[in-house]
Amino acid sequence: MNPNDLIALLGRPATDPLVEGALQHHAVRNRPEVEIDEEDADGPVVETQSWVKNSRRGIEFGFDDEAAWLGLDETEFGKRPMLLTQLYLYGQHPNVRPYPCPLPFGLKLTDDRATVRRKMDAIGSNRHSYVRDTWDVQGNLVIVSYAAGGSCIACVLCELMEPPLPPLGYALAAPPSIDSLVALLGLPLSDPAVDQTLGPFGLQDHLAQIRETSTCDLCDPYGLMVEFTAPQPARGGTLQEALLIGMTFCRERELGARAWRGGLPFDLSFEDSPETAERKLGRAPDERLDDPYSGIALWHEPDFSLRIFYSTVENRLARVSLIAPGVWKKTA
Question: What is the tens place of the pLDDT at every residue in 261-297?
């Protein structure tokens, strides 16, 4: 099957004859479906993604429920078709045979990392590099992972870019400056500066949540999570007041959030790769922990600790956290 025709299927429903034809062509037996749990009080749809593959032919198809993909209300999940959003073409990968057909963009499974970059830099834009390399190509992300020390391709993933969430029907409060937010670290909840800065976000409406969980969840609609210490017993039988010890800024859809619309420390951007973030900080992180799909990096600065969470697949930042000095060990 022509690789360009295969990529052109991204965004089409699973019921599309061309998608069904591709599944049959690659001898994929299963068909995508949402996972439903009728006994789940929050259900019945509990999983909106589905993957089907043929390991003997080195190909996998990823699908998303259309309503979830568009960011519609959960009550709409399971009522629309599944959309083809991902294509995995495998090379040197455990328990999977290499994809036997031509790869898109003139790539070959024997290409080393330098060769892949040369070919893809001429086609795609905005390369994000870390463990993998990622390019933006005509509304898709093309992600290449490597094997054998970068001497060959482990997998080519072609992924449809997520659409923005539907617009809100009301205006949001303007986000405060990063400097004003940093100034809140370590302050008690009752400090006037806390309410002055976060009050427009509805802080007072979350006091019960803060007392119960030590967290003020403003992810929807502001893309912000604020952390406090739990109230501690003090002398005289009173409770020591909760202190603001951290805040996390989220990329759209991360933790169910709408995107944080304000600035980030060190001029970071959610579009930054881990390598770009490190350049902006001016030094290697004090701590780093990566797994196959995500990573965390931590820097200690005089006024705060900075922690970033990132995807090691798409090479973008997912969350950026500010933590009060001396507190990071308790929250790491």
Answer: 999 999 999 999 999 999 999 999 999 999 999 999 9
Tokens (6 digits) for 150: 């970068």
- Measured CA to CA, the distance from residue 244 to residue 159 in angstroms comes to 39
Which DSSP category does 188 fall into? Answer: B
Q: How many CA atoms lie within 13 A of 70 on its CB side?
A: 17
Asked if the structure places residue 170 within a domain, the reply is no
- The 3 state secondary structure assigned to 116-130 is HHHHHHCCCEEEEEC
Q: 278 near 266, Cβ under 8 Å?
A: no
CB 59 within 8 A of CB 88: yes
User: Rounded mean pLDDT of the chain?
Assistant: 93
- Are the beta carbons of 23 and 61 closer than 8 angstroms? yes
Kindly report, residue by residue over 204-227, the tens digit of the pLDDT. Answer: 999 999 999 999 999 999 999 999
Q: Does 10 fall in a domain?
A: yes
Burial 15-39 (b: 16+ CB within 10 A, else e): eeeebeebbeebebeeebebeeeee
Q: For the chain, what percentages of helix, strand and coil (3-state, to nearest 5) are there? A: 25, 30, 40
Strand-strand pairing, 140-147 and 152-160: antiparallel
Domain endpoint, select from 128, 160, 192:
160
Q: Which DSSP string corresponds to 45-111? A: EEE-EEEEEEGGGTEEEEEEEHHHHHT--GGGTTSS-EEEEEEEEESSBTTBPPP-SPPGGG--TT-
